[in-house]
Structure formats: structure tokens, C-alpha cells
Amino acid sequence: MFQWYLQSGTDSDVVISTRIRLTRNLEKYPFVNQSSSADSEKVMEATKEAINDLSYGLKVLELKNMDDITKLSLVEKHLISPEFALSKSDIGLLAINEDENICIMINEEDHIRIQVLSAGLELENSLNLAIEIDKLLGEKVEYAYNEKYGFLTACPTNCGTGLRASVMVHLPALFKTRKYQKSFRSCR
What we know:
With 188 residues, the protein is of the alpha+beta class. Helix content is 32%, strand content 22%.
């Protein structure tokens, strides 16, 4: 088992991790914030079946069957959001591989949230893996897509590609010199 968070990667003295996230919704069902329990169950069944057909060693887990310590552990590893762990446990699924670098949340803010995580600065490799998973999953389920707006999501800022790429960096000198607020303002 080689969990990404126990590894070193490119520039890992500064870049702790890379995360690529793709957000998708299924065409036939209302978005999570508007769906009934029955709709959410159907989304879980459709995506569970599609995920089981993927070949990444993904294990599908129901959040309602997880204890709080396990959920907290997943939150601390940045594999699931705190909101998903707390408020969606009755309608949520999690598909995760043994290395914990691929994590797919079902019925979080959107129907499907594909995440690929890597140690260090690995944007291109992580993106390629996320796109590969997305393409294979998209062959099994029909995504909500609009020619003008792209992939439709619960949050308008995620519409289009549904892609978010981020890196977590370690910048201790900003806090030591108390320049972090000025730096954050400059980044905005």
C-alpha cells in the first residue's frame, strides 16, 4: 500500500500535494440539493454499478455504514469534505482505491465528484488520470451537459469543465515574517 500522503513527489519540499477534481451530475436526476431520497438512491445505484466496472481497484463504501472515526480520518487525509462526512451520510457513497489517490464521492454537492491526489507537484499526471476515469465513467452513465454551459453543476462556478486543480503548499516563512495577510491579498 502506497498512500499518496506518505510519499514524496516533485518539489515536495514546498508542494505538499496536488488535487484534481472533476464534478459531474447525471442527466436523468435532479441535482443533490433538489433530489428526493428515492432520486439519491437511484443515483447511488447507477454510479455504483458504473464504478464497479472501472479497473482501478476502487472499493465502494456507504457513508452510513462508516463510524465517525473513519469519516474523520478521511476528512483529515483530504479525501472527503467535512460536509460530506457529516450531512450526506444517509445518501452518500465513497469509492476509493487502496492507495487512496483516487476518491469518488457520490451525492456530495453534486452527484459525482472525482478526485485524484498526488504527493508533490503532479498536475499533468493527476489531470490525465482524472480525465481517464471521467471518460470511462461517462461511457457508463449519462452526464448532464449543455452545449452552451458545458457540464452542469450545483454551483455555477463549477459549470463548464467542472474542473478544479489545486496544490497545497508549505510556506512557513510567510507566517514567521507575518507577511501572510499581505500575500493573500496580493493573490486575490
